Amino acid sequence: MASQAITKLRDHLSTVNDIQGALGLMGWDERTFMPTGGAEVRAERRATLGRMAHEMFVSSETETLLADAERESIGFDPDSDELALVKHTRRTLDRQTAITSELASEAIRASSLGYQTWISARANSDFQAFLPALNRIVDVNRRFVEAYRTVQPDAQEDYDLLLEDFEPGLTAEEITSVFDVIRDRAIPLVAMVRERAVDVDDGLVHGDFPIDRQRDLAMTVIKQCGFDDKHWRLDETHHPFASSIATTDIRITTRYIDNFFNSAFFGSLHEFGHGLYERQVSPSLERTPLARGASMAWHESQSRMWENLVGRSRSFWEWAIGPARDAFPDAFGNASPDDVYRAVNRLHPSLIRVEADELTYNLHIILRFEMEREILAGKIELDKLPQAWNQKMEEYLGVDVTDDADGVLQDVHWSSGLFGYFPTYALGNVLSLQLWQRINDEIPSLEESFAQGEFGELRTWLGENVHAHGSKYLPKDLMERVLGTRELNPGPLTNYLEAKVTDLYGA
Amino acid sequence: MASQAITKLRDHLSTVNDIQGALGLMGWDERTFMPTGGAEVRAERRATLGRMAHEMFVSSETETLLADAERESIGFDPDSDELALVKHTRRTLDRQTAITSELASEAIRASSLGYQTWISARANSDFQAFLPALNRIVDVNRRFVEAYRTVQPDAQEDYDLLLEDFEPGLTAEEITSVFDVIRDRAIPLVAMVRERAVDVDDGLVHGDFPIDRQRDLAMTVIKQCGFDDKHWRLDETHHPFASSIATTDIRITTRYIDNFFNSAFFGSLHEFGHGLYERQVSPSLERTPLARGASMAWHESQSRMWENLVGRSRSFWEWAIGPARDAFPDAFGNASPDDVYRAVNRLHPSLIRVEADELTYNLHIILRFEMEREILAGKIELDKLPQAWNQKMEEYLGVDVTDDADGVLQDVHWSSGLFGYFPTYALGNVLSLQLWQRINDEIPSLEESFAQGEFGELRTWLGENVHAHGSKYLPKDLMERVLGTRELNPGPLTNYLEAKVTDLYGA
């Protein structure tokens, strides 16, 4: 047997993967169906299984099996599952081994405390109350930076070492060069939208939208896109997410607001995009660490594609107006596809990122990325964050922040210890448009087919070119395969946004 | 620290328990919400976690920790959680260690094959097709008998060694002396019911029962009994069950039939009884092997109590008629409590155990127990089972079996390898009536309070006297504590059944 050692490694990793799969189910259950009283015991159980998975992974057994597999895989086809598994495991093992168990548990404590503190600090809009917890979290992140530097000694700056967990191979400098372009083209567009006397009427999407009919419509639409009951579920939750219990068992969730159409509808399409990625990973990668998306930005490129490039397109509404009228004759009975297209695309600078439109969304991300980078570089004092935040919000969005709860305290990520994660949200938008160009080049009739409710070509293209590979390739290697470039290019995104502004608000 | 060694043992067992808890959630999910396509990967994951829990339990680490704990616990209060944990672990460990891993995996293969074979054999009503798989299962059980005899050398007969897994401390001989009484009193009652020209009218419970309203009514009733959303869920499934994910997280399921009232209503009460048992286990036993019912018969005594002694009582319907009329005005609007009481208590000998009434149910169990015992004792050839089954059905119930699918092949248990499990279903009925006498002695107004929809006294009594102890005590020790006797006594059950027959069908 040529691949005896790799088979052994793979079996060992499958066992770790099975524990992680159980943890995934526990996490899904907690956020959908678990009675609240079960939380305490569940936390213990997750801690136990998490510790076991970690111990099994960073064990000397993994190291031995991996070393054997590395010797065996010399000369293997670079596109083979086997070599990809060996390389991925080496990369992850080295990073995880660099983290002492003392640092790992300090990180859990700091984020657990940080989350609790953030909850009450946000409720009271009291940034000072959150500051000590944030300090501790930043300290922990600096210790992670130190640890990661031992395996990545040539990293340009500290930020890159944290980013590596979410977007391997990318640097803060590259992100900045992309974000600067977006920022500098978006700010005047935002100002223009604000200044125009006429606004787009989005009254259509505000009104009476009974939840059971929202659910039926969301199901109709995502089934048309590729959701099937044999492999998918759609449930309700407070903070929507997608979770792949297996590539054959995809669970997405959404949140219903009974007087606002967009939330559940576009939220379902967004999570469908995440789910489809994991659903179309090659079965040969099941129960391995490769059975997931290549990176956060790659994942987000898929969810934003289905949410925005499909769901907020004019041609999509040529078809979707039918099911939408059936579900909500009062709201949509007399509306044209174009009416709905305009209503769901209204641009409106506002305080809260998760409610932001396509144009302003990126600016929310960019301002936080800029602050994160300054924090890590020691260029800003933590107690100055609210002022810096408010100033940037005014500068980028023209929005006046009067309350830290809806300002610097709005997002959970920092409180949970996540630094380096945020930029991937906007990078996903960038990547989705680069992909969109390529897909439309290859399938010129793509958008016309949406008007017929046909999404199979898009699904298949994504499956074959992107999804099937799982995380076999590093993000930039996957870009090179799919797009013929290793560079994130903000051009297609900014062109798209400019065209949309012109379409909706005039030249 | 006096209990240092026991604390270490307990922590170790909690880790095993956490894995089992994850398996419990996976099992619940499989039978409620999992998309069917997820089954294959789920099976792999369960196998991995099951193997890990087993390996951790039968490890030399457990043996060492247990030996230390045993030394430390000498002289401990026999009622202490600590001593109970030590004794329970010794008993379980010795039995599990007696099983070689080769036998354990042969058992899994045999039951997996057995189940598949049974499915198609039952569909074709072809006992001969099932026979080879049954032979293999019986062989495996004989090998279990041999293994268990090494730790229980003085067992009277082979059957007792299998029974020990479900009803520790009980013997086939004792069961026979109980079952003979029930059988000999039930057979003439069944004959009498069959022969009477007048039958009870149960038209009330057949008709149009929309499922959403069945669900609402079931929820109303079990909430009145003690179900609360903070710690319980009720979901739909094909084969109803109760599952405690934790004592604080109880999940029960039911099955709705849209033209038959009894199935979901009494099924919900039945599973509520199982769930309440695990819900009221003392929090001090959480995450230990003691956080479950004392035995199968003890468990079944609780489910049958809520299903039959509460739910099929006259006084219960004095209250329940109100919610039932609200839910189903067409069916129950003009019915009196007594009308419903009579309809839901109709006795009718039939082929299928799971649909059987209170009187005939026990005879279904007894005939299978008698056959199981003969099989283990080598007194009957497996290929003679259908004839033996049909003859007993005629003799006990006056029912003519024309089809093995609805005869000897009707139940899944044997195909899954379970021998020694069946009698606990009827023993639960026996025990429920012994408990019922005691409870009514201590709370003379109990049944009157049901007429007011008050079930708190019963719930509290069961919690304090039975549930809180979990499986700290062996079944007979628990009987002695609660009932002052170590003997299962069929008298209360047969008296109860006789009174019911008289009430419904005249003397």
Description:
The structure is a homodimer of 507-residue chains. Chain A is mainly alpha-helical. Chain A has a domain at 1-98. Chain A is 63% helix and 3% strand. Chain A contains 21 helices and 3 strands. Chain A has helices spanning 4-32, 39-57, 60-72, 81-98, 101-123, 127-149, 158-163, 172-195, 211-225, 262-279, 296-310, 314-327, 329-332, 337-343, 358-376, 385-397, 423-442, 446-450, 456-465, 475-483, 491-505, and strands at residues 232-236, 242-246, 249-254. Chain A has a 3-stranded mixed beta sheet, with helices on both faces. In chain A, helix 9 (211-225) crosses helix 12 (314-327). The longest helix of chain A is centred in the first third of the chain and has 29 residues, at 4-32. The radius of gyration of chain A is 23 Å and the shape is globular. The termini of chain A are far apart. The mean pLDDT of chain A is 96. The interface between A and B is large, with 37 and 37 residues.
Summarize the structure.
Chain A has 507 residues and is mainly alpha-helical.
Largest interface: chains, residues each: A-B, 37 and 37 residues
Percent range for β-strand residues of chain A: under 5%
Residue windows where pLDDT falls under 50 for at least 5 positions of chain A: none
Give me the number of helical elements of chain A: 21
Distance between the termini of chain A: 66 Å
Quaternary status = homodimer
Structural class of chain A, by secondary structure, is mainly alpha
> How are the strands ordered across the major sheet of chain A?
1-3-2
How big is the Rg of chain A? Answer: 23 Å
Largest sheet geometry of chain A: 3 strands, mixed
Number of strands of chain A: 3
Spell the H/E element sequence of chain A: HHHHHHHHHEEEHHHHHHHHHHHH
